[in-house]
Write a structure and sequence with these properties.
The protein is α+β, with helices and mostly antiparallel strands. 33% of the residues lie in helices and 17% in strands. The strands form 7 sheets. It has a 7-stranded antiparallel β-sheet with strand order 1-24-23-19-18-12-11. Strands 10-4-3-14-13-2-25 form a 7-stranded antiparallel β-sheet, with helices on one face.
């Protein structure tokens, strides 16, 4: 980064925002890295777009902390990557506070009150029917109010400027718009935003969104009331009602993000914190626990060793089952501690790393291990032992029906049902990763891992006041069967997002997260393995080819694995195939000596910043 950009700080961010983003970034060897890697002693940000990362860096340089930077980056990324997230979506945040040695987890995934669905016919062919009350604004502001240091208006300033002045349409966003032009064009607000003079915007055109800029100004001025009340709220409810959705203005004002305790386990001498139910931390941590039952480093890189390939594939394959029983813990008892415990992982040694890919996998009971907790996790007050209740009459009437995973999301861990490839395939939710992630660290050692999402690309493909409305909602298969007494008034559907971090010797060692639907846990586990087990540089860890197993013996394999390895994998019973479509992308920051090394996945347009 140029000297001018390094010294710009928040006071000079706005004039220099675009110039800084265009400056090539070099690593310590002076080899071009396209902004994918950044090194600094004081702080770092990595996200899916350089302008968003610039916004976060400006907060750090302007005296803000990791929360300020993460919130600024999240609002900015919602402007420049609108298909993936925005004020109409939701997400989750994991924060580490170095001064107190504590962690906090905030679930602000889009959710909805179940009561509203009495007598409403759910229809998955009408995207707005599966929208939910957006959680992004409430969650990001709640985190900023509790832990931020800079004024709210200062944190939102970069996002407002980007929406108002616009930015050049880059390849990924242009591709998403082009391939979905027919459906996006049905929305009148979208046509005003993404069309000029009768044609859809093309690569290099400037995308401006004055309506979104106004929404962001209202949020900056009035906080959450600027979104959940007033003109923006009325516009959102009216648009939902036009699509047959029963949400009301009262639902918007009643929405509250949930402060929870993170899941906790250990891996290779590190404490690992991740997202509790109904998020995807179960699969990520369970995969790491299973991976730790073998010595991956001794086996060699999975790209060169069939035995390492087997250990990696079998661990992550079994990990899928941990997520198959996931659900909102307000509604269903989830033995989350048991599912991420070393004792439960030990029960799978007969199928993990045995050089034999079994034909099918059946869930096993994690409840006996739910009281297990590593000593290193105890002081962090992690996610508690099993909570939640099963409603009278069971879950059948309340089963989510938005995906083929439905009947496995209603089946609790330990039941005999074994999901099949057709039911829980990686293809189910891996169409490109319609989500985004941000990792941040600051000079005090604080860290934030935050994932935000519209759920699908452009959410429900309907706009209100300049933003896309999510399609993240839960809805019952049979609305008439909703019981009179509800376990909880609100319900959040299961999601694979899993903002996470690793601690070593009481300090942050790795901050990691990923978008990518059903591939999120796989991508994160491999990034951590390459960073920790093989001590690869963060960017090199992200460059490594990945595999994506399924509950069947099928394994999708990115380019870069030696032919002999794939032949050995096939001899073990695996069925290696090229990826069908899409990919997950990881945003990772690691501590290396006295410096932070931030990396953005080379599979996407993101960039890292550090100072």
């Amino acid at each position: 980064m140029s000297t001018a950009c390094r010294r710009s700080g928040v006071s000079l961010l706005l004039p220099f925002l675009f110039a800084c983003a265009a400056t090539p970034r070099l690593d310590e060897t002076s080899a071009p890295d396209l902004g994918k890697r950044a090194v600094g002693r004081h702080g770092a940000v990595t996200s899916a777009h350089p302008l968003a990362s610039d916004a976060g860096l400006a907060m750090l340089q302007g005296g803000g902390n990791a929360i300020d930077a993460a919130v600024a980056t999240a609002f900015a990324i919602g402007v420049v990557e609108p298909e993936m997230s925005g004020v109409g979506g939701g997400g989750a945040m994991l924060a580490w506070h170095q001064s107190t040695g504590t962690a906090d987890y905030l679930d602000f995934y889009s959710s909805q009150p179940v009561e509203r669905w009495r007598g409403v016919r759910a229809d998955s062919t009408v995207p707005l029917r599966i929208a939910a009350v957006p959680g992004n604004v409430a969650g990001l502001l709640a985190a900023h109010e509790r832990f931020g240091r800079l004024p709210r208006a200062q944190v939102l300033a970069p996002a407002i400027l980007l929406a108002e002045r616009g930015f050049p349409l880059y390849p990924v966003l242009a591709e998403f718009i082009t391939r979905d032009t027919a459906r996006l064009g049905r929305d009148s607000i979208a046509r005003r935003t993404y069309w000029r003079n009768g044609r859809v915007l093309e690569l290099g055109d400037t995308l401006r969104n004055a309506a979104l800029a106004e929404v962001l100004r209202q949020i900056a001025a009035d906080g959450r009331d600027g979104f959940y009340k007033g003109a923006t709220a009325r516009a959102l409810v009216a648009r939902l009602a036009a699509g047959g959705h029963p949400a009301t203005l009262e639902d918007l004002t009643a929405y509250e993000p949930q402060w929870k305790r993170p899941l906790c386990t250990t891996y290779r001498g590190r404490v690992v914190l991740s997202a509790p139910p109904p998020m995807g931390g179960l699969q990520f941590l369970n995969s790491l626990e299973l991976l730790e039952t073998g010595d991956l480093a001794a086996l060699g890189l999975p790209t060169r060793s069939g035995e390492a390939f087997d250990l990696l594939a079998s661990s992550m394959r079994v990990g899928i089952l941990a997520h198959a029983g996931n659900d909102d813990p307000r509604w269903v008892t989830i033995p989350a501690r048991g599912l991420v415990s070393s004792g439960f992982a030990a029960q799978w040694r007969d199928v993990v790393g045995r050089a034999r890919a079994v034909d099918s996998l059946a869930a096993r009971d994690a409840r006996p291990f739910d009281g297990e907790l590593p000593a290193a996790c105890q002081a962090l007050s992690p996610f508690p032992t099993a909570v939640g209740v099963v409603p009278a009459g069971g879950m059948a009437a309340l089963a989510p029906a938005t995906t083929r995973r439905a009947r496995h999301e209603q089946a609790g861990p330990g039941r005999d049902a074994a999901p099949s490839l057709e039911d829980f395939a990686i293809h189910d939710s891996a169409s490109g990763g319609e989500t985004t992630h941000i990792s941040v660290v600051d000079r005090e050692g604080n860290a934030v891992s935050v994932t935000v999402t519209n759920s699908s690309a452009f959410g429900a493909r309907a706009m209100a006041a300049g933003f896309w409305i999510n399609d993240s909602g839960w809805w019952p298969r049979n609305a008439s069967a909703i019981p009179a007494t509800l376990p909880a008034q609100w319900r959040t559907r299961t999601t694979t997002i899993a903002p996470s971090m690793l601690l070593k010797d009481g300090r942050v060692d790795v901050v990691v997260g990923s978008p990518g639907g059903g591939r999120i846990a796989f991508a994160m586990a491999q990034a951590v393995a390459y960073s920790v087990d093989f001590d690869l540089d963060p960017l090199e860890a992200l460059r490594m080819p990945r595999i994506y197993p399924a509950l069947s013996r099928r394994v999708e394999v990115e380019s870069g694995f030696e032919g002999e390895v794939l032949a050995r994998a096939r001899s073990m019973g695996y069925l290696p195939v090229p990826p069908a479509f899409g990919y997950a992308r990881v945003y990772l920051i690691a501590r290396r000596g006295g410096q932070w090394v931030a990396a953005a996945d080379p599979r996407h347009d993101g960039q890292a910043r550090a100072y």
